[in-house]
Amino acid sequence: MTTAVLVTRHADNQYSARALALADVIASGTSEAEAIAALRNALADLQTRSHIVQVDLPVPVAPADDPWVQAAGIWAHDPSWEQFQQALAAQRAAVDAESPAS
Where do the domains of the chain lie? Predict the structure, then answer.
């Protein structure tokens, strides 16, 4: 497995290495290689003590002032909806028939 690592050189000639996927896992050293090795060890240790699970989160409620939300579903029970869809399809077909082929 590989992961992206941000290596930073500090003013005191120290280096830090941070796993971008786990930003709170940071290691340091007197050289870039030492910092990366320390980070690799920290990540390996974390990996042996941890596991990933999936959790379901509630879907956030859209704000009531969103105009799209206010209009959503207004035609849900309209008895002429199917007729409208057929007329729209016929109009599209007529326009497509009139258009020159590209």
Answer: 5-49, 67-98
